[in-house]
Amino acid sequence: MSNLNQVELQNLRHLIGAQDTCYEKLNTYASQCVDPQIKQMFTKSAQDALNAKTKLMAFLNN
Q1: pLDDT per residue as tens digits for the range 8-22
Q2: What SS3 class is residue 1?
Q3: What's the pLDDT score for residue 50?
Q4: What angle do CA 37, 41, 54 make, to 5 degrees?
Q5: Rounded to whole angstroms, what are the CA distances from 56 to 6, 7, 16, 18, 51?
Q6: Residue 1 banded pLDDT, cuts 50, 70, 90
Q7: Is 39 exposed, middle or buried (0-12, 13-18, 19+ CB in 10 A)?
Q8: pTM summary value
Q9: Distances (CA, A) of 58 to 11, 14, 17, 36, 50
Q10: How many CB atoms lie within 10 A of CB 53?
Q11: 15: Cβ–Cβ under 8 A, 6 or more apart, which residues?
């Protein structure tokens, strides 16, 4: 793991949790959409949130 102090680690965990929450909510919104353009927007945003979460988690693995 990188040389993260306790505050940085806590902030990183908070950001990872927030991105996970965004991913779950956006997927739910996408599944409920009828309009294909809005559904696509929510799906892409959900994927972006998942990608951000993955990148943040990489800091824990270094």
Answers
A1: 889 999 999 999 999
A2: coil
A3: 97
A4: 155
A5: 16, 15, 6, 11, 9
A6: very low
A7: middle
A8: 0.86
A9: 14, 14, 14, 33, 13
A10: 19
A11: 56
Is residue 15 within 8 A of residue 54, CB to CB? The reply is no
Mean local confidence (pLDDT), 32-60: 96
| pLDDT value, residue 60 | 81
Q: What is the dihedral of CA 36, 42, 48, 52, to 10 degrees?
A: -170
| Tokens coding 8 | 């940085």
Residues 6+ apart with CB under 8 A from 17: none
What is the rounded average pLDDT for all residues in the chain? 93
